[in-house]
Write a structure and sequence with these properties.
Chain lengths: 263, 248
């Protein structure tokens, strides 16, 4: 999607400052600093084992960084107390690689779960809101099914519906296209991008899917061996000179030729 | 050195988890829903196996007592008397809980372990839910609530088994009835219930600990399930020594 250049600069909602993470003697992340803006799909890319999942887990608080700061709207997540952390987490939605739907609940119950836990809405309103979310991800009739009765792509869409049920400010996606066919991947990408713009969320997405990079990468950071190697957007990727990045992105002949044609 | 430090570290992690489990619930309505579900899954669904095993063990104890203890020098009520004492004092609480450690313990550990490896627990954490409390507290409460029911069923089924043997002609029902009623101490029934509360807590909390702290994949889930049964069984037997001494 080519947006016209404008003078509007979206506010920075998440800032990472000098983040380090080690597991015993092994340093997995080294001095990572990055900014993630509102209404944008921010991608974290890198080879398998480069540390992008660890970075994502640090950002959402599933891992505690060894040092550094993670600021959500200027609130330091790392030094927050438990209660403040729990409150902030209600502003987050996350889509996991495996969708992570609760398999003992129906699709509708899965989407209703955050509302059941944290909203003071009546049962009817909660059901209505959950159905709205399912309609938004084009699954209006899947409510009564269980997660194992629907396809992988549909599970990801249910995960998106569950993530947006509470109107979160921040959306995190850990390789949402993993295990999906290219066409379904594009549908998921488009859905994440559209929802990000529609709900004015700050979306951070881990991926090594090049279609995602070229399609929805409003802002991209490239991690190599735990270090921030490059940052830019999808337009800058095409003319990037960073060797590690170009080796990673244009690894296939098809993409290399596409780049040559673009240049 | 590791042989001492490792169990201590595990016990420390268990205590930390329990502190998380017993923190204030976020939304009681949701916890109650889970609690009712767990009572069905852990308690009601175990009634069948408890009835079946207790019935046959009651019958076997009765036969063994008749064959090995009964003699012309012993009163005829001895078989019924000893069968009752064994069922009330040990079988319906300790041995039945050992059986439940296998059935319920492995169920809890594998359920939580699978939730961990499929990132369902991470999903709860991201939402701001205290996952340990939300998933484990209803299980502990449900099993502790349902255990007196299971113990009662076990006692009744055990006596049923003994009566089945008496009707088969090995001893007379009158002798069995007299033996079952002879020198009856109500406290023994309470002992059984009190012990079972402790064992229910051990089964639910220890197996939840092993399931919740799984790291890895399906192999580790299987290992956690086995570990939970082994450790629950050991702890039940160990606790039984102290509880028997205290309550005797």
């Amino acid at each position: 999607m080519d947006l016209p250049h404008s003078t509007y600069t979206p506010p920075i909602m998440i800032e990472i400052r000098s983040l380090y993470k080690s597991f015993e003697d092994k340093e997995v992340l080294r001095d990572i600093s990055a900014l993630f803006a509102e209404g944008q799909t921010n991608l974290i890319i890198g080879q398998s084992g480069s540390g992008k999942t660890v970075l994502m887990k640090c950002i959402v608080g599933l891992l505690t960084p060894t040092s550094g700061k993670i600021l959500y709207d200027e609130r330091d997540f790392v030094s927050m107390n438990k209660h403040a952390r729990a409150l902030l987490r209600r502003e987050m939605g996350m889509i996991f690689q495996s969708a992570a739907l609760f398999d003992s609940m129906t699709v509708l119950e899965n989407v209703m779960f955050p509302l059941d836990m944290f909203s003071s809405m009546t049962l009817r309103d909660r059901e209505r809101r959950a159905q709205q979310c399912l309609d938004r991800v084009n699954l209006p009739d899947a409510g009564k099914k269980f997660p194992d009765e629907i396809s992988g792509g549909m599970q990801k869409r249910v995960a998106i519906a569950r993530a947006i049920a509470l109107n979160p400010k921040y959306l995190f996606c850990d390789e949402p296209n993993s295990g999906l066919d290219p066409k379904t991947s594009l549908v998921i990408d488009a859905l994440i991008h559209d929802i990000t713009v529609e709900y004015k969320m700050t979306t951070i997405m881990n991926t090594h899917d090049m279609n995602s990079v070229m399609g929805i990468g409003d802002s991209i950071i490239f991690i190599k061996e735990g270090c921030l190697e490059w940052c830019g957007d999808k337009r800058q990727v095409m003319c990037a000179t960073n060797q590690s990045l170009t080796d990673f992105i244009f690894a296939s002949d098809l993409l290399r030729k596409a780049r040559e044609a673009y240049q | 050195m590791k042989i001492i430090t490792q169990p201590l570290a595990t016990f420390g992690r268990y205590l930390q988890l329990m502190a998380k489990v017993f923190s204030r619930p976020e939304r009681l309505r949701m916890y109650f829903k889970q609690y009712v579900k767990e009572m069905q899954q852990l308690g009601v669904d175990s009634i069948g196996i408890v009835l079946m095993i207790s019935f046959f063990i009651g019958a076997v104890i009765c036969i063994q007592m008749k064959v090995n203890i009964q003699s012309p020098w012993m009163p005829r009520f001895t078989t019924g008397y000893t069968t009752r004492e064994i069922l009330l004092l040990e079988f319906s609480s300790s041995i039945m809980c050992l059986i439940l450690a296998g059935k319920v313990g492995s169920n809890i550990a594998s359920e939580l372990g699978t939730m961990r490896v499929t990132q369902q627990i991470d999903a709860l954490e991201i939402m701001g839910v205290n996952s340990a409390s939300f998933l484990i507290l209803p299980k502990i409460m449900a099993l502790v609530t349902m255990i007196p029911v299971l113990v009662t069923f076990s006692m009744v089924a055990g006596f049923g088994g003994a009566y089945a043997i008496s009707f088969a002609g090995i001893l007379t029902p009158d002798d069995l009835t007299y033996g079952l009623q002879h020198s009856f101490k109500e406290w023994f029934v309470w002992t059984s219930y009190i012990k079972s509360f402790f064992f229910a807590f051990i089964i639910s909390s220890v197996s939840a600990f092993y399931g919740y702290t799984v790291e890895g994949g399906s192999v580790e889930v299987g290992k956690a399930s086995t570990d939970s049964v082994v450790h629950c069984s050991m702890l039940i037997l160990f606790a039984d020594i102290f509880l028997t001494q205290i309550l005797a």
